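Sample entry (311 residues):
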Amino acid sequence: MNENLAPVVLFVYNRPEHTQHTINALKKNQLARKTDLFIFCDAPKNPGDTDKVKQVRNIISNVSGFKNISVQCAQSNKGLACSVIEGVNEIINIYGKVIVLEDDLITSSFFLKYMNEALDTYITNERIWSISGYTPNIKFPTAYKEDIYMAGRGCSWGWATWKERWNSIDWEMESYYAFIKNRKKKKEFNEGGNDLTYMLKDQIFKRIDSWAIRWVYNQFIQGKYTIYPTKSLIKNIGTDASGTHSSSTQKYDVYLYEGEPYLPEDISVNPEIKKSFKEFYDLNLVGYIGVLSRKFGIYLLLKKLRKQFKI
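Predicted structure, serialized as tokens:
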């Protein structure tokens, strides 16, 4: 493995308990003490967030266990999308590669080793867009023996990429209006899950503010793939609806794999895994209700009710 390790960029906001768990898990990684850690904390969006943000900032001001630690606290609220885009831009243009986490992700102790080795292994493979540390609970063919697989949809839950891929993104998505009129292209895009086109429309019409859907759209337009482990090295603890952009569901819960995936140099898309992956992300009834609620401007109200009644 290349000794020039990728830095970790961690985005935090108003969840002190989640943030502490995320940092504690990351510190247990084998390469933590050799890794530079950059923490970006957004400013409160409203007065109700002020106390929680202060608690988070107190936690991140006392972090140890890494090679170098840099903490940047915003003076005004940027929102997650702007925070991620600006933060990743800053660090990836210095290091040439980056590993990104948010404040609700628990990492396996092998996470950093896997991510760095994958970045080294696939850097010259122009088909690879990013590396994911998370994998959803999908069904794998009995005959499939690899520790990783490829999918045409990136993941925002513990991921890594290289400067060249990141800097190729058109964040304004100027090709969107030609794309949305092309039925074939939309069908191909939705092979990563039929929620994708709905999220893309929500982004275009400013019903959501997501860096991730723009990231995945650009991946699709360029015909590239993400490497996933067959056993997850990331566990999301934010599916309790505690976050600004999180939702409450057990669907995404996984067992954390404490092992080291083998990374073959050559990997291709498996049709059975591709089908299972799509089925996992295809919208169910609750998902379609979410789509309609955003369209009619009542999403936040429904999210509040779901959180209150633990639906």
